[in-house]
Every structure is written in C-alpha cells, then in structure tokens.
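Recap from last week: sequence in, structure out.
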Amino acid sequence: MSAQIEATLHDFPSLFSLKGKIAVVTGGSRGLGLHAASAFMQAGCSKVFISSRKAAACEEACKVLNALPNLSPGATAIPVPADSATMDGVRSLLAQVKQHTDAVDILFANAGATWGEAFDTHPDQAFAKVMDLNVKAVFNTIREFAPLLQKRASLEDPSRVLITSSVAGLGVGTLGKQGTYGYSASKAAVLHLGRNLALELGPRGITVNSICPGFFPSKMANGLLAMSGGADKIAKANPMRRLGRPEDIAGAVVYLTSRAGSHVNGEAIAIDGGALWSRGEMLVEEQSKL
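Predicted structure tokens:
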C-alpha cells in the first residue's frame, strides 16, 4: 500500500459530524446529560429529545438548548418527561418519541441516582432504588428503543448507545459515613451489561459503549465534593489539577457517536484526568500520616 493511499481519509471534515442525527438523552435536563445534549445539538443533530422525571426541568433545558448559537437550521430540542425507573415510564418515553420520529440514531442512557450512608445502617430500599435506576432501567430503555435504533442503522453508519457509568464502577467508590455501595456496584454492573449488549446488538448495527466520569461539578456530585474536603482539594489531588468540565463530556460523546467512533464497541472510557490511577498513591500518603 502506497503512502499516498495510507494518508487518504474519507471525508475527514465530516468525521466528527452528527448532521441530521436524532438523539434521545435520559437524565438530560441537567449535569452531564445536559452537557452531552448541548454537544449533540452543536455537532449537527436535527432532533434531541430531553427526558427526566420533571416536566418543568425538561422544558427549561430545551429552552436553553434551542437558544444555542451554533445549531443547524431546523435543529430542535424536544422535552419528553418520563420516569425511566419504571417500565411504564420507559414505555411513556418511547411513545412520546414515536410521536415525532420512527427512528433514533443515538440513545444516551444517562439517568441515574446515588445514595450515601454508612455500611451498618445502609437501607435495603436505598440499595434497591439505585440498582433499579442505574442498571435495570438502562437495560429496559435500550431494549425498548432497539427497534428505533435499528431503523436507520447500517454497516457503515451504525446507531449508537451510550451508557453513563462512573470511575466508581472501575475502582472503589466512596466508603465510610457516606458510603455509596449500591452506586458503585450498579456502575460496575452497568459496565458489564454494556459489554454484553455490545456483542448482542453489534450484528444489528448498534454499538454500545460506556463513559466513566470522575468528579464533575453537578447537583449529584456537589454534596460528595463538599464532604471530601471541597472542590479545590479534590482538583489539586487530580493528576491534571482540575475537575471535569462540560467540554470533556462533550468531546467524548461526540467521538463515540460520530463516524470517528463507528468501530468502537463494548468499551468504557474514563473521563477523570487519571484520578482513578492515583488513588493508590493517595492511600499510601494517608496511611503514612497515621
């Protein structure tokens, strides 16, 4: 193969484009879901459906997204409030989306919950609630949306499923007084679910990948940040000396859902500045102080 052929890339300017794609984002009204929805819109999606339990929050998020300056003509964010923790909620979400389209190119299963409490008093209902939303609801949502994802999927342009896991699913999460045992277990479980679904759905023209964020300032993370010594302390302990930013999520989700990521399947991408790998060093430092 000649160097000239090797240097040729098919239509590189469109490699990271989502022009004309249709996306559904659960947990999309705030935090990481809203970061991702903004990226999908600005990368060229024609429709982005925003779902969360609260209708007012969905409406407000869509208002903000539709006012973004870098949108394709006619691009729109559409509120579809639903509680995806229940099968009735998942079916409601699907029915609302089908009122606007019979095909979906991107499903971002991002809705999730956490619970922090000491091991000895950690309640059964809290563990169950977290596992139901973070694992079972993800499976149910992907299963119900699979026919819409297959509609326009092809060998050259597969549809995409993204799952929000966490670095807590790759390593050890928060222990102690605010232990997040169910959350950590659920995020490890949903990672493995994603690997299984990648093999199940790949032949149908659907890739399944997971993102594993570290600390990003958000409503869910802010309480834990405060209990861990504050955002500044956590940022200084990170190898990159900062917390996550919206652009860090945006770059990862656009890569995985655009043509650039069409041959990535069954993978998990940590977005944490390398903090996961520095925890051993931090533990040694803490033990040396004892």
